[in-house]
Amino acid sequence: MSTEIIGIAAGVCTAISLLPQLIKIIREKEARDISLFYLLILFAGLALWIWYGVLRDDIPIIGTNIVSIILNIAIIIFGIRYKRKSS
Amino acid sequence: MSTEIIGIAAGVCTAISLLPQLIKIIREKEARDISLFYLLILFAGLALWIWYGVLRDDIPIIGTNIVSIILNIAIIIFGIRYKRKSS
How many domains does chain A have? Predict the structure, then answer.
């Protein structure tokens, strides 16, 4: 149980660390500094973590990486939208 | 074994996604866009993942998050150095 809490706290912190990129891109409506290549690598990594969590039956990994991947997808969507506008 | 490979692949991808921030800060010698607050939250998250990996005896989580936390520490060190210079 306390192990799970540490896992959830870990995942909440790493998910939160995606927020400044999302906030910046929505505020500035500009995506020149955003690398879609690395966002897609991060997407692959988060999807693999979810898959790994399912294989290990590890709820903190699954849950927190689902939150992270949703934030990552939002950054990708805004990134594509604002890259188009600025080009 | 194949589960471990998925975990390692996941961790390699999420570690790689820290690289653009590190490369950018070293190239531009400028850290105005870097939020130390969020880098410290990410540091806490990665440290908790390592702790979680130790508790779960999970080698992919431990190994890949050690790589990530080294990259994160490098970003923090350069961030503090270049924030000082630019202020």
Answer: 1
